[in-house]
Specification:
The structure holds 2 protein chains of 2 kinds.
Chain A lengths: L4 E3 L2 E4 L5 E6 L6 E7 L6 E7 L2 E5 L7 E4 L6 E5 L8 E8 L11 E2 L3 E5 L1
Parallel strand pairs in A: 2-11
Antiparallel strand pairs in A: 1-3, 3-8, 4-5, 4-9, 5-6, 7-8, 9-10, 9-11
Chain B lengths: L2 E4 L4 E4 L4 E3 L1 E4 L5 E7 L6 E6 L5 E4 L2 E4 L9 E3 L8 E8 L3 E3 L3 E6 L1
Parallel strand pairs in B: 2-12
Antiparallel strand pairs in B: 1-4, 3-9, 5-6, 5-10, 7-8, 8-9, 10-11, 10-12
The chains are: A mainly beta, B mainly beta.
């Protein structure tokens, strides 16, 4: 297993376009997280999944954002009608998620850098 | 809600100086605590962790002790090196994982 993989690594899009990012977690990890990170800030929580179930979604997350994890493996994050303020690094992480693994860390991908022009 | 507050940076030190980066947390329940590091051009990686009160996490000369009474998890290193220059993030986990804003450390030779 090569770790958490994110694609694409970079995306430039015009304002108003839709974009979709993909995350492939570590294979045995049932928990998957999406974060957004802007320059000089820490990762801001967006949402997370336990297997295919989306358990929590940040109140700060616009309804233009949607995430799926249809088979409990890879996940996609879609942003509709992108705005310049969506420009950021989008990070995916995965971890073991059952109660007995509550103390385990999350492993991060390299991120997808989105630039909205 | 659950949150982490970190000492604001940037922090600039000379090589072999002592480092402290403060971190305090607010949580319902009993979180696990983590320090992550992000080197220039690289992704976030775990530096150390502690899972219960009074535990000490350590790695690469860095240490942090889980202090329940002060809700703190301060990062320390006795003698920093130029290669320690990075951004350091404190984080907590109960269900999901929440991060502080990060502290940029620059170590000069």
């Amino acid at each position: 297993d090569t770790g958490v993989s994110q694609n694409p690594r970079h995306k430039i899009t015009k304002r108003g376009q839709n974009v979709t990012f993909r995350c492939d977690p570590i294979s045995e990890h049932n928990r998957l997280y999406w974060y957004r990170q802007t320059l000089g800030q820490g990762p801001e929580f967006l949402t997370y999944f336990q297997n295919e179930a989306q358990l929590e979604k940040s109140r700060l997350l616009s309804d233009r954002f949607s995430a799926e994890r249809p088979k409990g493996s890879f996940s996609t994050l879609e942003i509709q009608r992108t705005e310049q303020g969506d420009s950021a690094m989008y990070l995916c992480a995965s971890s073991l998620g059952d109660e007995i693994y509550v103390n385990t860390e999350a492993f991060f991908g390299q991120g997808t850098r989105l630039t909205v022009v | 809600g659950n949150s982490v507050t970190q000492m604001e940076g940037p922090v600039t030190l000379s090589e072999e100086a002592f480092l402290t980066i403060n971190c305090t947390y607010t949580a319902t329940g009993y979180p696990s605590l983590f320090w992550y590091v992000q080197y220039p051009g690289e992704g976030l990686q775990l530096l150390l962790k502690a899972t219960k009160a009074d535990d000490k996490g350590s790695n690469k000369g860095f240490e942090a002790t889980y202090r329940k009474e002060t809700t703190s998890f301060h990062l320390e290193k006795g003698s920093v090196q130029v290669s320690d220059s990075a951004v350091y993030f404190c984080a907590l986990r109960i269900s999901d994982m929440r991060f502080g804003a990060g502290t940029r450390l620059t170590v000069k030779p």
